[in-house]
Amino acid sequence: MKINSKYFLCLTIILASLFSGCEKVIDLTLQNASPAIVIEAIINDVNQSQTVLITQTIGFQESTKTVPVTGATVVVKEQGGVTLNFTENKPGVYISPIYKGVPGKKYTITVSSGNQIYTASSIMPLPVEIASLTQTELTFFGTKKKFVVVNYNDPAGVPNFYNTRIAVNGIKRSSYYIESDRFNDGKPVKNNIFNDEPDLVAGDMVKVELQGIDENVYRYLFSITQITGNGGPPTAPANPDSNFNNGALGYFSACTSRIDQIIIK
Question: What is this structure's pTM?
Answer without folding.
Answer: 0.80
